[in-house]
Amino acid sequence: MKYTTCLSLLLVTNLLPLAAVGNDGQSPNIVVIMADDLGFSDVGCYGGEIKTPHIDSLARDGIHFTQFYNCARCVPTRASLLTGLFPQQADGKHSVTVAEVLKSAGYRTLMTGKWHGYSGLPTERGFERYYGVISGSCNFFNPGNWRPGEPAPAKDFGSVRPFAIDGKVIKPYTPKATDWYATDAFTNSALKYLDEYATEDRPFFLYLSYTAPHHPLQAPDAEIEKYRGKYMMGWDVLRQQRWKRLRALGIAQDSWKFSRRDPEAPAWESVKNKVDWDLAMAVYAAMVDRIDQNIGRLLRKLRDLDKEHSTLVIFLSDNGACAEVNNQAPEIPPGPLNSYRTYDVPWANAGDTPFRKFKRWTHEGGICTQFIVKWPRMIKTDGTICRAAGHVMDLMPTFCELAGAAYPE
């Protein structure tokens, strides 16, 4: 395992002494994959037990950071990512998006998934193609109206999230396919775009913005069964196990401290309904697993199109684990389309091991994200761990430099 304390290898403010467009004069394709409410230690390469081989492969073949920061919540983080500004500066009127700037440099600009946090539609702010949910998260099986033969889809206090396909807003958006699942659907559109523009002699920018594992806890039964029963040891043991792996992986240094259990989380041994708690975490793990499977599909597509070598791939989360309690259908177990449940403070505390606090807080548990970068053409490492600090708003200027794009005055 190699270690570095500088960013000259790849990313963030002084990212590229390497040269603006690489040593062969070609601007890279850029893929940004953002998870929603993913805890710091939820993936394998950051100490997690959830099966994430494809995310782990990005870390193994690239660089992963230990001190990369977001803005603690989805809206400000996404605004900073899109604009390269502090979120309070990204008002939509006096700022440009990374898609607008890259498009001016000849990039094909593509987006699927969650928009949320910036004015207008993606296609009004530089993205040429878009498929996804405009605001917030949604029912993962059916974000729209009831379909015959199924229970009514659960919604967040009855709200119907607007979708958009390119420049057309659809509300409600009711998929015809009964096997529709949001994480898969967002990836399907991304792969379709890559196929559609595969023969173009121009680079692309793809922003794949997942809504998972944000609540509601919903996942296909087969995925849930892979994890059911695996969390009966409880959050106290899980936190210890993740802490041990974080140190073994070299993510956690000797100076890091293992936080106490959050005061709002009871001791596992005092909990009576352990099977119910196990199921909640199993569904959450299934949602993360499904993200990883879809990232695997995307990476295979890049290889099949012979674009893996020239593509910069970045993976991160918009904030830490979510401790919000939002159990609107307590009589229905987590998992199916008619359930609306969260996994609550105790599991979120485990998700952010070894840190304190969660999404919305500016403690490490709220703002420190996994940040993984792979770019075969320029990064020649065997899993470098970078300990330099970076922030999500560093991405916009980094991409501009890579693309040779001029940021407008």
Describe this structure in words.
This protein is α/β, with parallel strands linked by helices and 409 residues long. The protein has one domain: 3-Layer(aba) Sandwich (Alkaline Phosphatase, subunit A). It is built from ten helices and eleven strands. The chain has helices spanning 53-60, 74-83, 98-104, 182-196, 221-225, 234-249, 274-304, 344-351, 364-367, 395-403, and strands at 3-4, 29-35, 63-69, 108-113, 129-133, 163-165, 168-170, 204-209, 311-317, 368-374, 384-391. Strands 1-11-3-10-9-2-8-4-5-6-7 form an eleven-stranded mixed sheet, with helices on both faces. The longest helix is centred in the C-terminal third of the chain and has 31 residues, at 274-304. The radius of gyration is 20 Å and the shape is globular. The protein starts with a strand and ends in a 6-residue tail after the last helix.
Per-chain topology:
Elements: E1 3-4, E2 29-35, H1 53-60, E3 63-69, H2 74-83, H3 98-104, E4 108-113, E5 129-133, E6 163-165, E7 168-170, H4 182-196, E8 204-209, H5 221-225, H6 234-249, H7 274-304, E9 311-317, H8 344-351, H9 364-367, E10 368-374, E11 384-391, H10 395-403
Parallel strand pairs: 1-11, 2-8, 2-9, 3-11, 4-5, 4-8
Antiparallel strand pairs: 3-10, 5-6, 6-7, 9-10
Strand content: 5-15%
- Structural class, from secondary structure content? alpha/beta
**Describe the biggest sheet?**
11 strands, mixed
Chain-averaged pLDDT: 93
Helix content: 25-40%
CATH architecture: 3-Layer(aba) Sandwich
CATH superfamily: Alkaline Phosphatase, subunit A
Tell me the number of structural domains. Answer: 1
What is the CATH topology descriptor?
Answer: Alkaline Phosphatase, subunit A
- Contiguous low-pLDDT stretches (5 residues minimum) are 1-23
Shape descriptor? globular
Distance between the termini: 42 Å
Q: Mind telling me the CATH class?
A: Alpha Beta
Order of helices and strands: EEHEHHEEEEHEHHHEHHEEH
Count every helix, treating DSSP H or I runs of 4 or more residues as helices: 10
Strand tally, please? 11
Radius of gyration: 20 Å
Strand arrangement within the widest β-sheet reads: 1-11-3-10-9-2-8-4-5-6-7
